[in-house]
Amino acid sequence: MTWSIVFRERDSGRIAIAVATKFFAVGARVPYIAPQKGAVATQALFNPLYGVDGLKLIRDGVAAQDIVRILTSRDEGQAHRQLHVLGADGKFAAHTGADCVPWCGHWIGEDFSVAGNMLAGPQVVSETVRVLRERSDLELPRRLITALKAGEKVGGDKRGKQSAALVIYGKDEYSELDLRVDDHVEPLLELARLEAASRERWTLFRTFLATRQNPAGIYDRARIDAEVEKNQAAARAQAAE
Questions:
Q1: Per-domain residue ranges of the chain
Q2: What values do phi and psi take at 200, rounded to 5?
């Protein structure tokens, strides 16, 4: 009842999951990310313990294929589950259970994986993959949303639309971006709107937050406001060109 992307940005080490479905609040249950280490997307008749236990295995240094094997082998319902994983070895692996609702399947690459079930057909995954490959010119959030939109255009979830989410982690223990559309008639359009809104202030503001390297961060409000205004002015000028 879902299709999703697990993505690793090779140069920066950023890890992202983007997902869309005809189901309520998909962002609350599908994406799990261990910053700079790996990620798990658990879906179909999802088992949330795949996410919780999968992150522990990633932090313990377990490889992707082994994570999939460990999680599914101890689950009596594994035939109804789907998951794809970026393991501690930097590789991707996936499982699509035999009893997942057609169309169901997954694609594994070097930098990302795509998996889906209860889809209009295999073209949903293949078109998502194609756009991810071709639109490397886009910043990561827009690249992922654009790819999901492409999958939706060729059928998406065969039941319709309801929720979508986008989560990105960089070097810090908290997310760079965490957007959720829990219930909407056009969740991917709303997700794109939220992403655009995040660039108005949040994407710059987050650079002033405390980090392990700078535990106090930057808390000079005048400096923060001046930098945000400068960024917004530059964006307005670019839009006017």
A1: 2-184, 204-240
A2: -70, -35
